């Protein structure tokens, strides 16, 4: 290829790198803003996004996750966009390194999620169950979120109905939440009739497995974009030596 063609190709890839990372930067800013919104006004967020958001809130704190992801995307977008625009080898290498670290972390999380489901359940139990005992029936938003989750997934508690044993709700109502009975009237000792639903963790996990194809496709798409971004940044980094 002639020098002009090479420079034209370099310029095209540079512009695409800038535009791509500008989108990432704006997306990060949006997620950061939504995360702050959830932190400040969670009820409005739930009213707009409905049952799915409430079920997710039982496993992770959405606001902190959105803020963390938004901040990371802002950093990545800035490094990629500004690094390509200024043709800075330092910023391009930083961009490559950050994306590589994220890619490795995602692969590690995927492996852990596939192989170590048991420990994940134990960890969630240690974090979520105490909150159920303390806040269900006390915190209106927390209670409503769990009611929506248990109704949507036809489940009771995180592991099973025993998550409510010795809880504020059971100590004051002397029965388990109505959502735990699958539409049947609440009983004082429902475990004797076997009418209680199973835990939400297994139901949510089964729902994820049912949609594993879509989840895997999205994950593969994100991985492909990350690999492409690393390849482009390294291409620009190496070509700068030739300029």
UniProtKB/TrEMBL annotation:
Structural component of specialized membrane microdomains known as tetraspanin-enriched microdomains (TERMs), which act as platforms for receptor clustering and signaling. Participates thereby in diverse biological functions such as cell signal transduction, adhesion, migration and protein trafficking. Regulates neuronal differentiation in response to NGF by facilitating NGF-mediated activation of NTRK1/TRKA receptor tyrosine kinase and subsequent downstream signaling pathways. Plays a role in the inhibition of TNFalpha-induced apoptosis. Interacts with SLC19A2. Interacts with NTRK1/TRKA. PANTHER family: TETRASPANIN, TETRASPANIN-1. This is Tetraspanin. It is a multi-pass membrane protein. Keywords: Glycoprotein, Lysosome, Membrane, Transmembrane, Transmembrane helix. It is found in: Lysosome membrane; Membrane. One of its GO terms (cellular component) is plasma membrane. Pfam families: Tetraspanin. Its main location: membrane. The keyword Ribonucleoprotein does not apply. It comes from Acanthisitta chloris (rifleman). It comes from the Eukaryota. Belongs to the tetraspanin (TM4SF) family. The chain crosses the membrane at residues 12-38, 58-79, 91-116, 214-238. Gene3D superfamilies: Tetraspanin. The lineage of its organism: Eukaryota, Metazoa, Chordata, Craniata, Vertebrata.
């Amino acid at each position: 290829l002639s020098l002009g063609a090479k420079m034209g190709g370099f310029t095209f890839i540079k512009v695409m790198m800038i535009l791509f990372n500008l989108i990432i930067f704006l997306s990060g800013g949006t997620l950061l803003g939504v995360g702050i919104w959830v932190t400040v006004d969670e009820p409005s967020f739930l009213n707009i996004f409905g049952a799915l958001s409430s079920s997710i809130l039982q496993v992770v704190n959405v606001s902190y996750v959105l803020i963390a992801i938004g901040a990371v995307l802002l950093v990545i977008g800035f490094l990629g966009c500004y690094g390509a625009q200024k043709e800075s080898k330092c910023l391009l290498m930083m961009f490559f390194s950050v994306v590589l670290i994220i890619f490795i972390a995602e692969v590690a999380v995927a492996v852990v999620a596939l192989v170590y489901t048991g420990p994940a359940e134990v960890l969630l139990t240690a974090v979520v169950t105490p909150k159920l005992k303390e806040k269900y029936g006390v915190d209106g938003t927390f209670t409503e979120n769990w009611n929506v989750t248990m109704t949507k997934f036809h489940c009771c508690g995180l592991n099973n109905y025993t998550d409510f044993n010795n809880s504020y709700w059971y100590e004051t109502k002397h029965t388990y939440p109505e959502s735990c009975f699958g539409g049947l009237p609440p009983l004082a000792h429902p475990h004797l009739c076997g009418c209680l639903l199973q835990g939400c963790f297994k139901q949510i996990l089964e729902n994820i497995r049912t949609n594993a194809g879509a989840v895997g496709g999205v994950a593969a798409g994100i991985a492909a974009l990350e690999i492409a971004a690393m390849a482009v940044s390294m291409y620009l980094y190496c070509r700068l030596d030739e300029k």
